Amino acid sequence: MIAHLPALQVIIPLVSAPLCALLPAGRVVWLAAMAASWLALLVAALLLDQVLAHGPISYLMGGWPVPWGIEYRVDALNAYLLLIVAGIGAVVMTFGRVIVERRIRLPESKQSWFYTAYLLCLTGLLGITITGDAFNVFVFLEISSLSSYVLISIGRDRRALTAAYQYLIMGTIGATFILIGIGLLYVMTGTLNMGDLAARIPAVADTRTVRAAFAFLTIGVSLKLALFPLHLWLPNAYAYAPSVVTAFLAATATKVAIYVLLRFFFTIFGAKFSFETMQLDKVLLPLALVGIFSASVVAIFQDNVKRMLAYSSVAQIGYMILGISLVSVTGLTASISHLFNHALMKGALFMALGCVSFRVGAAKLERMAGVGRTMPWTMGAFVIGGLSLIGVPLTAGFVSKWYLIVGALEKGWWPVAVLVLITSLLALIYIWRVVEVAYFKPAPEGQVVREAPLALLVPTWALALANLYFGLDTSLNAGVARLAAQSLLGASQ
Amino acid sequence: MAILGLYNYWIFIILMMCGFYVVISSGNLVKKLVGLNIFQTSVFILYISMGKIIGGTAPIVIDKAVVYSNPMPHVLILTAIVVGIATTSLGLALVVRIHEAYGTIEEDEIHAQDAEEAL
User: Fold this and answer.
1) What predicted TM-score, i.e. pTM, was given to this entire model?
2) Nearest Cβ partner of A146 from B32, B36, B90?
3) Out of B36, B76, B98, whose CB is closest to A135?
4) What is the maximal distance between C-alpha atoms in chain A?
5) What is the pLDDT of residue B1?
6) Residue B77's domain is classified under what CATH number?
7) d(Cα B73, Cα A294) in Å, to the nearest integer?
8) Given this model, what pLDDT does residue A142 score?
């Protein structure tokens, strides 16, 4: 069993997905989906434990030797990512049942399909992360993307439909760019295995085809991860999707895209080619900075809190890209640990917001007046998530911001460090707007709001407390991130 | 001669650009999907071309020594074709739902309705 963990990681949610479609709506299908997602988390935890103890795992799908078969390769970086994705997948699934039953525009007979799409999306994200085969990345990417278009489109607002359509167009262009990039690499090297690609690319690196492949892959992945200025699909998609979907996608989908970027830049092309020959850091750095700054400013002016947090996500993605563009162990540690920490904070924030809109009916700012007193637990979780987002010490968000600033100062780029601090203040402003309305404005006359049900509060608080826990004990989020950063830079030298 | 020899790749580039242009420029949601389809199809040609070897035949083992085409890209692109079908059908399904919700599939009219609602 233990030897087949890498395969089980993908197969458990993949097989459970069609199974869920056959089960009756309600508690039964939810329990089945819960079992699948928590089992996936267990597998991810075991995998990380094994990788940390014994080093990278190579698993040959179906026993076919490399390069004919597909290899699943788990090292510190993707074991860490698998834990994030599976962890968020399981917690949000726990949160999901009440929302799916009462807040999603689906007749009861079709609610089982929600779980099918959710598990397929989870399968895709886990698959992208675990595979060691470049073409397999594309296949899993499309599995996760297609199911996430479906998940977004079932939001209550009709704008969810146009948001899903827009994401479909942008996402498909991105995925097709990735496909072209992989094809061009195959032409030059004759292999799709990531290890083989890394070994054969240096010999042909100085050709236009490889450079074109690099460009196509960079743009394609940047579209998927919503790098400024390719982020236009993200705010609407996150704002109009059901809160359970937003919490899941915001915490996982963009993280996995950043993982793909790291894998291609550092493992396959190598840091030397990506950052010395192609000088990519000089492109990423300004985009990251402008992205962080402009998205934070736009977030301040949003009236829809969900949309505000979506813009904040674009800014946070900027921090991750900023860490990559430093091309140092500290910078990469900041990026990779921010994948983890941002998943925790945004998961907690979007889930708390889901609780609010469950009771008051919408995620509009003016509707939240007074909820700080009527829903103290929900808003408590929101405030903890918000503090972590700002990067207050003793929260998880502080850890990655700290590494980011140290990384910038190591390079002597003090203006970058200052900018990180300034944009943290911008985050303070937009979180404060919500806190002010929720705690200091009186509730409208006649509005009766109760605390959210326990089934929603427990998973929300689980993530909120995780924000505090990982702010104090950084051995997992920063420790493993550092290991992963070292292996990424070490592999390419 | 080099340019003519790369005939397939020129077709790939032209189709890709045509498709891409339609996706960006067209305001009609169905036309956008058609453009997206052309864009995706162009990549199929890229993959199929790279597997072809002049004089090559299907990879079936026979006694005579012959040149084989590389079947790998052809198999890969079968997967991509399936993905393309799934994307197109999902996109069209969304367009049907959008038409039900808005009564139009023109992008500017949808934006106008959304802007009206926001006021």
Assistant:
1) 0.92
2) B90
3) B76
4) 73
5) 55
6) 1.10.287.3510
7) 42
8) 94
